[in-house]
Amino acid sequence: MVFTNLMRLRKASDVAEHMGLTQSSISHSIKRLRETFGDPLFLRTPKGMEPTAVALGLEPKIRSVVETLSQAISAPVIFDPASSTETLRLGAFDNEMTTLVPRFLQVVRSDAPGMRVSILPLGRRPAVDALEQGDIDLALGFAWSLPRSIKQVKLYEESYSVVLRQGHPLAQAQMTLEAYVRAEHLIVSPRGDHRGIVDDALEKFGSMRQVTTAVPQFLPALSIVATTDLIATMPSRLVATQAGRYQLVSCPPPIEIRPFTVSAMHHERNSNNPMHQWAISALSEIANDAAQM
User: In sequence order, which ranges of 84-235 are alpha helices (DSSP H)?
Assistant: First the structure.
């Protein structure tokens, strides 16, 4: 337990506080670990205890043993939403925060009023890393590929819509491919890229658009589109819920763009966690209700 907590927290004082032990007890445990494995395991640095290569290699094996023992000696956990005071930690990009989380919080406040929810702004790779490290319980979003340890439950399949401000010169006519590529485009990219899935689709038609602006999140993108002549191609559910608020108009893109799946992702070690199962079930119902509206 000391080893796994050191790998996660990287500070002996934090491990002592987390486990309810003295720092002396933690130091003795580290000494025994070093003697057992014949390696320093953790090196002191200004940023905390840095694991050695041996420690990094041992971590998944030791974590698996600790989890197996914990499951073996623990009584079956029963989750009662009405009496729960647990904290559910979600990782999501602002698309899912906007389309799924508000209604999910309504369910929480109604069915699990004592539960707390923490939401971290995490995109694909950071969310997967956080799941593997145990820093979050669930991640909402999509990923084309996942490590075997991360499981996902499909919530819905998402398509795309083009958004532009009311009064935009292209708002009065049908969006043709020629007009689409001639316009100046805004793209949502956490890394600041000026190329995305839309450009891959256009390439198949032998076309290229003008991407002049990249922003890291969807809601700022909608605000920018509302006050400029930039247009953007965004997830359809987000557009459907937010276009009116930003006084935007929308239309289908003039080309076929591959849809993507929005899922609830969790680590395999939590596959039987009743709180996680309840949350995923609630999110699935919300997604299904929205699809039927």
Answer: 94-99, 101-111, 124-133, 177-182, 197-204, 218-226
Distance CA 202, CA 180 (A): 10
In the predicted model, is pLDDT for residue 29 greater than 80? yes
Q: Return the number of other C-beta atoms located less than 10 Å from residue 227's C-beta.
A: 10
Q: Are 195 and 134 spatial neighbours (Cβ–Cβ below 8 Å)?
A: no
Of the candidates 160, 164, 161, the one whose C-alpha atom is nearest the C-alpha of residue 258 is 160
DSSP state of 258: -
Task: Considering the chain, tell me which residue range(s) the CATH 3.40.190.10 domain(s) occupy.
Answer: 88-158+261-292, 160-258
Instruction: Tell me how far apart the alpha carbons of residues 170 and 284 are, in angstroms, rounded to a whole number.
Output: 37
Percent of the chain scored above 70 by pLDDT? Answer: 96
Distance CA 53, CA 46 (A): 19
CA dist 243 and 227 (Å) reads 13
Helix count and strand count (H, E) for the chain: 12, 12
Mean pLDDT of 219-244: 96
Nearest in space to 238 (alpha carbons), one of 107, 122, 96? 96
- Output Rg (C-alpha) for the chain, integer angstroms: 24
Indicate the class that CATH gives domain 2-73.
Answer: mainly alpha
**DSSP single-letter state for residue 75:** P
Write down the pLDDT at residue 198.
95
Q: Is 13 helix (H, G, I), strand (E, B) or coil?
A: helix
Say which DSSP state 19 is in. Answer: H
For residue 82, give both structure tokens: 């009405």
User: Would you say domain 160-258 falls under CATH 3.40.190.10?
Assistant: yes
3-state secondary structure 124-149: HHHHHHHHHHCCCCEEEECCCCCCCC
How much is the pTM?
Answer: 0.70
Domain boundaries for CATH 1.10.10.10 within the chain: 2-73
CATH tag, 88-158+261-292: 3.40.190.10
